[in-house]
Amino acid sequence: MFSFRYDDEVSIALPLPDKDSAALYALVEDSRTTLAQWLPWANQLHSVDDEKKFLQTTLTHFGAGDSLNCVIRYRNQPVGMISFNQINKEHQHAEVGYWLGNQWHHKNIMHRAVTALMTIGFTEYNLRKIIINVDINNDSSNHVAQKLNCHLDGTKREDILYSNGEFADMNEWTLLRSEWEKLR
Per DSSP, which regions of the chain are E strands? Predict the structure, then answer.
């Protein structure tokens, strides 16, 4: 199974639906209020079986080359997920999505996981640009993009509709391969 180790603590790997679904669902259940604030899917996940089906679907999409969804492991324990939600082969760019369980915040895990995914994107997928779209009010995720030296391309107004019926503005952060190479 595909796995990429960032350091002794953080790695990302393709999900193992039978093994990972219960742990990931427990994280979502425990962090649902926080996750649902930014991620519309959080309130639509109702069981370990829902999580397992989602993980199986991500493997199908990976096999087709459409996306790459990985479990974030901290000290070999699932703590969240990270993905290239959409891989645009023609234009050589991909959009990153990610989440962590509440108890794993403030350990620099997400910075390391996104760095690992970007390394894969630029070296294995030959991407020229990686995009991170973040709700303008999500300070933690905006900080992740800033810390990675991403460029704020702009704010897309009323870009996402949340389950409460309200639209939100999204910051679009990008990192080009040429910029990433200079940072290495």
Answer: 3-5, 10-13, 68-74, 77-88, 93-100, 129-135, 151-161, 167-176
